[in-house]
Amino acid sequence: MSMLQAARQALATAPPCLEAHSRRVALLALGAAKLLRLPDPVLIAQAAYMHDLGKTNWPQELFTKYPLNTFDWALVKVHPVAGENLALELCPDLPPLARALIRGHHERPGGKGYPDGLAEPGVEILLLAACDAYDAMTGERAYRSGGPLSVEAALLEVARFTPARVVAALAGAVVRKAG
What we know:
Elements: H1 3-11, H2 16-35, H3 41-50, H4 70-90, H5 96-104, H6 123-138, H7 151-158, H8 164-178
Helix pairs in contact: 2-3, 2-6, 2-8, 3-5, 4-5, 5-6, 6-7
């Protein structure tokens, strides 16, 4: 089974918002990776589609709950590792880059992310992190009052943890997707 088939199978039973988010993040990651001329944009997009597999075992109410208690936060913080493990179960020959992207999509420079607190996440990880955060900020979320952020505001937020060239590639991917 291919990576994409495995991800589709796993996401088929997840809430529709999760599959739709994964699809949008994959499209953004593909476009931005191409603009950055990264070596394997298709693999990056496939890993982006799989990035939230660790949420497929969450209780339904966790997708809309706010505020989160300590136990809920523990589930949130472990989903990248759970996603990596599920991806490996579904696709035992998962390439190392895909594993790193799934596991690292919440890493931030300076060790400020999770699950591993990487001091210097690679450009591919930061690209996926940027695409994921951007889509979360510009989409509707039941737990967030005030509605989604504008494209410009979301890109400014992403720029707080992502190198300028990644932000520029994400902005370019957003423009291409809209056009």
